[in-house]
Amino acid sequence: MKMSNARNSSLIFGSVVCITLFSAAAVRADNPSWEEQQARNREMTRQALQQQAQQGPSPQVLQGQRWEQEWRQQHPNEPMPSFGALEKMHRGEIMQNMNAGFARMRQNRQAELQRNYLMAKQRQESILAGQHITWTSAQWANWNQQYDQEQHQRANDYLEGVRQAGEMERREQERKLMFGQ
Fold first, then answer.
1. Is the pTM above the cut of 0.70?
2. In the 8-state DSSP scheme, what is residue 56?
């Protein structure tokens, strides 16, 4: 009798689980927001793949493919080393590319700073022209010096903010270690 009750309970439980799963699937299929989300996901995936196909592989991927091709040409019938080993073999090229990238970044930053300076100077000239004032070269030199001081202060404030953020992060990590979180 107990076995029969256990079997019946098992059958009832199994039936309830099946009905729940079927009704959840039906609700999901009937739910327009779920279907819309799935359609949006498919569209985003399609767009990402299309964009990737148009842009082609990244410079890093192309570099890795070139290294593999060079290895195969220079070392026929030898096993391909891991990508990390290839990177070590081309350390000089990597450093050269990094340095060139940093140089481009510095050049771009200098151009941006120059544009900002020219815009600030044009703004000052416009204010002065609106008031029918003409500055002497000494007054402009003073303005330049004040502008430079403001930029240095802005840079120092930024660095101090970064330092404080790092200090706060370090303290948070220490707190988590201390309290086991």
1. no
2. -
pLDDT digits (tens, 9 = 90+) for 63-73: 999 999 999 99
Note the pLDDT tens digit of each residue in 113-164.
999 999 999 999 999 999 999 999 999 999 999 999 999 999 999 999 999 9
- Amino acid identity of 64? G
Between CA 27 and CA 41 the distance in angstroms is: 19
Residues 6+ apart with CB under 8 A from 136: none
The DSSP secondary structure of the chain, one letter per residue, reads -HHHHHHHHHHHHHHHHHHHHHHHHHHHHH-HHHHHHHHHHHHHHHHHHHHHHHH-S-HHHHHHHHHHHHHHHHSTTSPPPPHHHHHHHTHHHHHHHHHHHHHHHHHHHHHHHHHHHHHHHHHHHHHHHHTT----HHHHHHHHHHHHHHHHHHHHHHHHHHHHHHHHHHHHHHHHHHHT-
| Size of the chain, expressed as the number of residues it contains | 181
- SS3 state at 102: helix
Q: How many CB atoms lie within 10 A of CB 155?
A: 10
Question: Considering all CA atoms of the chain, what is the largest pairwise distance in Å, rounded to the nearest integer?
Answer: 109
